Amino acid sequence: MGDFSVDTTVTGADGVYRARLSRDWEIWGPNGGYVAAVALRAAGAATTLTRPATFACHFLNVADFDLVDLRVTTPRAAKRAASLSVSMTQNGRQILQASVWVVADGSDGFVRDTAAAP
């Protein structure tokens, strides 16, 4: 097993990033959770907000263990939350498409009041 923090590193700036998929995360191709984590890293690099609130993706093709290109766009951003779209391609072939919401630290989340059964 590889070093997850190293193997999910993305480089680049301004919504255009690159990563190299490591063979250490092989199943029949790159592990899906690993590929998704690379996309989430790209989303994190494209925003100053630090807490991912939601992540959903479609795996469109199996990637090779090589370089992937990531493009992150921001369809909606506010002071405390942003919606990000991540597209991962390899040699012009789309690998993954993701939607991510990120929020600011210190945001109050859902509060649950669990009452005891009578």
CATH superfamily: Hotdog Thioesterase
End-to-end separation in angstroms reads 50 Å
Sheet having the most strands: 6 strands, antiparallel
| Proportion in β-strands | 35-45%
Look at the helices and sheets and give the structural class. Answer: alpha+beta
Unreliable runs: none
Oligomer: single chain
Number of domains: 1
The radius of gyration computed from the alpha-carbon positions, rounded to a whole number of angstroms, is 16 Å
**Widest sheet: strand ordering:** 1-2-4-5-6-3
Mean pLDDT: 93
Q: Tell me the total number of β-strands.
A: 6
SSE succession? HEEHEEEE
Task: Using the 3D structure, state the CATH architecture.
Answer: Roll
CATH top-level class: Alpha Beta
General shape:
globular
Count of separate DSSP helical elements: 2
CATH fold title: Thiol Ester Dehydrase, Chain A
Instruction: Report helical residue fraction.
Output: 10-25%
Chart the SSEs and their pairings.
Elements (H helix, E strand, L loop, with lengths): L3 H4 L3 E3 L2 E5 L11 H14 L5 E9 L7 E11 L3 E10 L2 E11 L15
Antiparallel strand pairs: 1-2, 2-4, 3-6, 4-5, 5-6
